[in-house]
């Protein structure tokens, strides 16, 4: 029960008891009829009705919650874990309760998503002091350490289910709901019709949503809309309203005899303008009456009218989306649903083509999710997206890097899969998020298509963008908006942290200390100094580009465009060079201040050969040799490294670090993200992923911003000075952040590595000598 419900029942009880006492006094003392009988009687009646209405509502709400939790339990039993998690999360959004929280975390744990389950349990634990949630979190930690915990998790599930008591009638309805949800999630429709008949006539939100899901799967969109509308009328929770808005935005409406006057007016205007266009074409085609000057004037009028018609078409097509936006804006979401509220609005504005507003709401949703404190609707799915993105680019330092074994085809052999499921596919996680956002009652992903006007004699082109790609691009911009480079602990306890920022301030000014928050070992540092690097300091950048055979076609074409964009926007304080590699490498253009020379060199590149990233880095290092100022390599590759190159990579990393050269890397297509990220992390650089070759230009621009907005943060450690294994986190107010582990002194892993190295006595034999075998005496 909510606080408001308790207050209303309390008020009702006070009115009833107070009225009853006053009436009793009135009868015993023969007091005034109005003051001691009629007024108290009315008050007692109002109090009784209020308490009964609120009490019945609470009972119905609790019964619905119990049925939702039972559905989640049954979905877990049939191993339909994602729908189970969504059902529990939806129940929690409508009526926050500990059982829904337990089931939401448990479903993730049984799916072996232990990291996500542990975080979910801990987030819910902040709200409920519950031993079961603590147990789930502890079991997830044990599972991540290699322990088999599935049997213990199933015992928790059995305990939760035993607490749910439903009548036979309620259980039968719940089973039909389970069957529908399980089939919809699997893309099957076998017995949906019979389950729909079982639920026919039900008006509670849970049944309405299940009926909508079934009709959606059967392609009956009108019935889907009617059921979602009924669910939204009976359920004030945000998930029910969001699902209705998403379907309405697609143009699905309930049949009505009342004409849509707004849309009819637009269609009439379109018809009138099309008629004017036809008349103008008739005049143009009448050669006898039209001279060349008049023809050009008429053609200009036609073009203007056609543009107006397109605008009217766009306005007509966006009517339903605008109505959906207004419907959502009228909602008053709880703090738990704030993240989902912003996400839904972001998608709706995207459908209208208002990318700026869409991005604003999307950044709000992502920023809220970054905190890790959300327990509301879609919080787990969004957390899964963030984890998948981070896992896809995660790498350990090359100090710990182990060269993989390669099979006969030259493909890296991965270790046997661990028991824990680690998601590293952000695209798949985003699709799951979008399907959950519509409660499986509408299509998850949506697209926006626009016509790009051709330059000069070029034809217009049509560009289609998926919301999933837009979300991933926004996420990458935020996660790469700030980068912690190297952490200097030479003068410990004084710390110097090099940071790069790719996100510009809205007002165009430089960042100040007040824009940053710094945390070391989880404790905020307020007395830090922010220093911007000298603007006139020379930056030397060698672009190292993969031109192996796999880059042929669109990959190389987009790489050339990306390099061109980078060259054109590079500032005067940035000198550039170009090296390319396949199975070998060469410097095509030494470091120069002539941007045109670099551009011309890139235009001559063709694709052929294998992949040797080590040789490419060595060529870039050679080009930067002896240059003053900052020295940067920007590496681009679309594939996995060769075994020969991987075997020498640790040595290459050591040489780069010895010369103070930082590597930024861009990967796309089949690039090994963790491998490239390892190179960057080991040199103080940053790895960025382009989902497609078309995204290369924007990723290169992000790197260009990194290189022109660099700062140093200095502070003195005053607490926990004895902790030599530390973590720093730096963030901006807009949700952009980065965090990094660092060591004071020598990294313990390095010490262990050195201990495992061959003895120094054999050093000459390992790397030097004549190369001839000694003859036996």
TrEMBL record:
SMART domains: VWA. It comes from the Bacteria. The chain crosses the membrane at residues 6-28, 35-59. Keywords: Coiled coil, Membrane, Transmembrane, Transmembrane helix. Residues 263-315 form a coiled coil. Residues 540-703 form the VWFA domain. The keyword Transmembrane applies. The keyword DNA-binding does not apply. Residues 400-419, 754-777 are annotated as: Disordered. PANTHER family: CALCIUM-ACTIVATED CHLORIDE CHANNEL REGULATOR (PTHR10579), ZINC FINGER (C3HC4-TYPE RING FINGER) FAMILY PROTEIN (PTHR10579:SF43). This is VWA domain-containing protein.
């Amino acid at each position: 029960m909510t606080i408001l419900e308790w207050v209303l029942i309390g008020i009702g009880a006070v009115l009833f008891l107070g009225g009853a006492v006053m009436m009793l006094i009135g009868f015993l003392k023969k007091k005034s009829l109005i003051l001691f009988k009629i007024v108290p009687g009315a008050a007692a009646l109002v109090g009784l009705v209020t308490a009964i209405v609120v009490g019945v509502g609470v009972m119905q709400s609790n019964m619905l919650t119990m049925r939702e939790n039972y559905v989640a339990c049954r979905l877990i039993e049939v191993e339909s874990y994602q729908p189970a998690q969504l059902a529990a999360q939806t129940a929690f959004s409508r009526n926050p309760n500990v059982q829904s929280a337990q089931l939401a975390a448990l479903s993730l744990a049984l799916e072996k998503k232990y990291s996500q389950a542990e975080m979910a349990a801990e987030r819910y634990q902040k709200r409920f002091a519950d031993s079961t949630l603590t147990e789930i979190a502890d079991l997830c930690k044990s599972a991540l350490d290699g322990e088999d915990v599935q049997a213990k998790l199933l015992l928790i599930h059995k305990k939760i289910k035993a607490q749910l008591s439903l009548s036979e009638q309620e259980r039968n309805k719940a089973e039909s709901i389970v069957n529908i949800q399980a089939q919809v999630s699997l893309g099957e429709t076998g017995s949906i019709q019979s389950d729909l008949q079982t639920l026919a006539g039900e008006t509670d939100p849970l049944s309405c949503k299940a009926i909508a899901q079934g009709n959606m799967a059967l392609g009956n969109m009108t019935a889907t809309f009617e059921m979602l509308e009924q669910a939204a009328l009976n359920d004030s929770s945000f998930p029910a309203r969001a699902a209705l808005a998403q379907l309405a935005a697609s143009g699905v409406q309930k049949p009505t005899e009342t004409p849509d006057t707004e849309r009819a007016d637009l269609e009439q205007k379109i018809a009138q303008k099309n008629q004017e266009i036809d008349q103008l074409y008739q005049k143009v085609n009448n050669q006898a009456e039209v001279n060349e000057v008049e023809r050009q004037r008429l053609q200009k009028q036609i073009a203007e009218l056609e543009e107006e018609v397109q605008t009217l078409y766009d306005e007509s097509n966006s009517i339903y989306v605008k109505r959906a936006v207004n419907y959502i804006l009228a909602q008053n979401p709880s703090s738990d649903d704030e993240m989902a509220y912003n996400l839904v609005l972001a998608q709706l504005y995207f459908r209208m083509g208002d990318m700026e507003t869409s991005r604003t709401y999307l950044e709000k949703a992502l920023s809220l999710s970054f905190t890790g404190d959300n327990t509301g609707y879609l919080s787990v799915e969004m957390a899964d997206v963030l984890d998948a993105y981070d896992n896809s680019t995660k790498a350990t330092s090359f100090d710990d890097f182990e060269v993989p074994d390669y099979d006969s085809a030259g493909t890296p052999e991965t270790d046997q899969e661990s028991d824990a499921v680690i998601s590293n596919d952000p695209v798949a996680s985003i699709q799951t998020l979008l399907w959950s956002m519509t409660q499986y009652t509408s299509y998850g992903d949506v697209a926006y298509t626009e016509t790009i006007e051709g330059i000069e004699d070029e034809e217009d082109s049509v560009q289609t963008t998926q919301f999933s790609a837009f979300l991933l691009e926004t996420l990458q911009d935020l996660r790469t908006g700030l980068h912690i480079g190297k952490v200097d602990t030479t003068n410990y306890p004084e710390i110097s942290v090099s940071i790069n920022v790719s996100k510009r301030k809205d007002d165009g000014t430089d960042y100040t200390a007040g824009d940053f928050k710094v945390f070391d070992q989880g404790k905020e540092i307020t007395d830090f100094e922010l220093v911007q690097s000298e603007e006139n300091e020379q930056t030397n950048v060698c672009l190292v580009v993969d031109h192996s055979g796999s880059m042929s076609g669109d990959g190389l074409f987009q790489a050339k465009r990306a390099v061109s964009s980078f060259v054109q926007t590079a500032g005067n304080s940035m000198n550039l060079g170009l090296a390319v590699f396949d199975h070998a490498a060469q410097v095509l253009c030494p470091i120069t201040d002539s941007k045109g020379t670099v551009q011309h060199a890139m235009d001559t590149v063709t694709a052929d050969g294998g992949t040797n990233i080590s040789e490419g880095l060595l060529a870039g290092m050679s080009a930067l040799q002896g240059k003053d100022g900052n020295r940067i390599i920007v590496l681009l590759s679309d594939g996995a490294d060769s075994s020969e190159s991987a075997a020498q990579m640790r040595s290459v990393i050591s040489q780069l670090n010895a010369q103070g050269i930082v590597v930024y890397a861009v990967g796309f297509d089949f690039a090994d993200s963790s491998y490239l990220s390892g190179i960057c992390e080991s040199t103080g650089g940053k790895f960025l992923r382009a989902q497609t070759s078309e995204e290369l230009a924007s990723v290169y621009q992000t790197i260009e911003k990194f290189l022109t907005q660099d700062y140093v943060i200095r502070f003195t450690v005053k607490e926990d000075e004895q902790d030599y294994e530390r973590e720093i986190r730096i963030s901006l107010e807009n949700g952009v952040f980065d965090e990094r582990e660092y060591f004071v002194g020598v990294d313990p892993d390095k010490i262990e590595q050195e201990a495992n190295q061959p003895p120094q006595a054999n050093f000459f034999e390992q790397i030097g000598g004549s190369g001839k075998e000694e003859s036996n005496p």
